[in-house]
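Chains adopt folds. We examine one example:
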Amino acid sequence: MPHWHPRRTQIEQRMLSNEFSINPLFVRKGEEAVPRFRMRDQSMLPETAYQIIHDEIALDGNARLNLATFVTTWMEPAAERLYAQSVDKNMIDKDEYPQTAAIEERCVRILADLWNSPDPHNTIGVSTTGSSEACMLGGLALKRRWQNERKKHGKPIDRPNIVFSSAVQVVWEKFANYWEVEPRYVNISQDHPHLDPEGVLSAVDENTIGVVPIFGETYTGIYEPVAAIAKALDEHQAKTGLDIPIHIDAASGGFIAPFLQPDLVWDFRLPRVKSINVSGHKYGLVYPGLGWIIWREVEDLPEELIFRVSYLGGNMPTFALNFSRPGAQVLLQYYNFLRLGKDGYYEVQKTSQAVAQFLSKEILDMGAFELLTDGSDIPVFAWKLKEGHTSNWNLYDLSRQLRIFGWQVPAYPLPPDMEEVTIMRIVVRNGFSMDLAQLFMLNLKQAVSYLDSLDGPIPHDTKYDNGFHH
């Protein structure tokens, strides 16, 4: 059975014919074929270009059946109409699009209030192209604040470090690499499945710019215990004088906990939490790409990270990493805030959680699997193959078998120290109904039944045994 792998796919793409063939209905003189890997000299009919691309992307997976991605794959028709009407808006050009800029500012205030900022109308925040950019900004602010404080006391600034669990999303590895900050990973284990106070205290020192708990872990969906970590750092400061801030990577949980777990203390109610990022294009229910970052107070974003530009028609501050970027997604976020309100967000997220918990229970009841999580935090759950169930197939085989039905469910190893454990994970998003969940269970049982019927083991190429799990 062939294995999909991005590198191998790139090589195979280069082995294709150097030309596209064109449906005769669209052909003009000299257009019987067009080059695949270089730009042609002549233009072509819009219908011809459309047909070529449309035919190719027909081979992509069905987004609604993609249970791997956290990213929103469905919005209602009114939102799509608004999207189509605003795709030309450039978020950076606040002089040309002042109302779009005003709406971005309103969204910042709404999120600051949602996350219990002490002064939501006077704090600072910004939209970004996604949580990855927002994380970079949060990390930069941590580093610059640490440097400024060290300079005040005449201390060196050349060895900053940042602390997070080994289950952290790859953006934090990138941040540490790009901005020359030592990453200190607290490895997860069976006894310590997430970042915890003990692990944090073993890693921090006077060069720690911040601690980054994950509020909705990518691998399993669990919340890392922010309040307990903050309390441990409070006690550590009382003993050592080290004031170590927290940035919350709430890419997924930032739009879940305020509605499904409102009494859970994780946000700006904890004074040590200085900034929070979230993905608007995940459980914010907006098409990609959109992220947000909010700082607890204006002082938590160092002034030197804010740049002022005048060449777009007005003197405007900017502190995102990207310059030009879409404004349409910001308008879609505000649309959701108006359309749903707190009650609507609760209903949408509660439905997703109910579907996740239904599926996790059904999968547990099959007897072939063990749950790692059940969807009780964010609507995401993970499972592994029960030890001793079979030696003929593994979860990578099951993932490939499910693709036959159209379902995309990733299989992948856990982080270092637990990489020998392979898991599968399902992300339940708005639009994945209970009806679809029941159809998925029917196909899952069919896939397992087929694999269990095999007389011998499936041969494996472990080099390609991995699934996409963003």
In short: The longest helix spans residues 328-365. The chain has a mean pLDDT of 91. The two ends are 25 Å apart (CA to CA). The chain is about 35% helix and 15% strand.
